[in-house]
C-alpha cells in the first residue's frame, strides 16, 4: 500500500500493439492501449493512478502509483508482435502493514493490537504464553488482531509483543 508498482509484459521484438486489461476486485474494468507505429496511447475507465511508464529503448510498462487495496485484481497484458500474439496474466495482491499498538488495560494486563493489516497478522508474546487472539474484519478487507496477556503481575516486566506480517515484522515492549 502506498508504493508505486510497475508491471511489464514479456519482452518481444517488433511490437505493434500492447494492451493492458485490468479487472480489479472492486470497481469496473480498465483498459490501456499502446500502438507502436505512431506512438499512440489510449485509456478507458482507468483511474489517474494507472498509466504508462515509458523507459528509454524499451516498450512501455504499466505503472500504478500510490497502490491501494482497490488495485487488487487481474492484470492481463496482450502483446501483438511480428512473432505472434502473446498474453501475460498477473494477479496483484496488496499487502497492508498493520499498526502495532501495545498498552496496559484497566486491570494491568498487556494488550497487543495489530490494527488494520492485510492479511491478518500473527501475534506472539515474549516470554511465551498461551493466549487466544481475536480477529475483527473491516469493510476495506483489512483485519485487526487483538491479544490480551493475563499472567502473574510479577511476570509483567518487559513483556514483548511481536507482530509477524508479510509486509514486515514489528515488536514493542511494555511493563504493566
UniProtKB/TrEMBL annotation:
One GO CC annotation: external side of plasma membrane
Gene3D superfamilies, per the entry: Immunoglobulins
Domain of life: Eukaryota
Record flagged with keyword Transcription regulation: no
Annotated compartments: Membrane
Mode of membrane association: Single-pass membrane protein
InterPro entries per the UniProt record, alphabetical: CD200R, Ig-like_dom, Ig-like_dom_sf, Ig-like_fold
GO molecular function, one term: signaling receptor activity
Keyword Ribonucleoprotein in record: no
Keyword annotations: Disulfide bond, Glycoprotein, Membrane, Transmembrane, Transmembrane helix
Any GO BP: regulation of neuroinflammatory response
Family, similarity comment: Belongs to the CD200R family.
The protein's name: MOR1B protein
Amino acid at each position: 500500500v502506498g508504493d508505486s508498482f510497475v508491471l511489464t509484459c514479456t519482452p518481444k521484438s517488433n511490437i505493434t500493439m500492447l494492451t493492458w486489461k485490468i479487472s480489479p476486485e472492486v470497481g469496473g474494468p480498465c483498459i490501456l492501449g499502446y500502438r507502436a507505429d505512431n506512438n499512440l496511447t489510449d485509456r478507458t475507465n482507468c483511474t489517474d493512478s494507472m498509466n504508462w511508464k515509458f523507459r528509454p529503448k524499451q516498450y512501455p510498462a504499466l505503472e500504478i502509483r500510490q497502490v491501494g487495496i482497490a488495485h487488487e485484481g487481474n492484470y492481463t497484458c496482450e502483446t501483438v508482435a511480428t512473432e505472434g500474439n502473446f498474453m501475460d496474466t498477473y494477479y496483484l495482491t496488496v499487502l497492508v502493514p498493520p499498526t502495532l499498538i501495545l498498552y496496559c488495560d484497566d486491570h494491568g494486563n498487556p494488550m497487543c493490537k495489530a490494527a488494520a493489516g492485510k492479511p491478518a497478522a500473527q501475534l506472539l508474546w515474549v516470554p511465551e504464553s498461551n493466549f487466544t487472539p481475536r480477529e475483527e474484519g473491516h469493510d476495506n478487507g483489512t483485519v485487526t488482531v487483538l491479544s490480551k496477556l493475563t499472567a502473574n503481575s510479577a511476570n509483567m516486566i518487559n513483556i514483548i509483543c511481536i507482530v509477524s506480517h508479510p509486509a514486515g515484522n514489528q515488536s514493542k515492549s511494555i511493563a504493566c
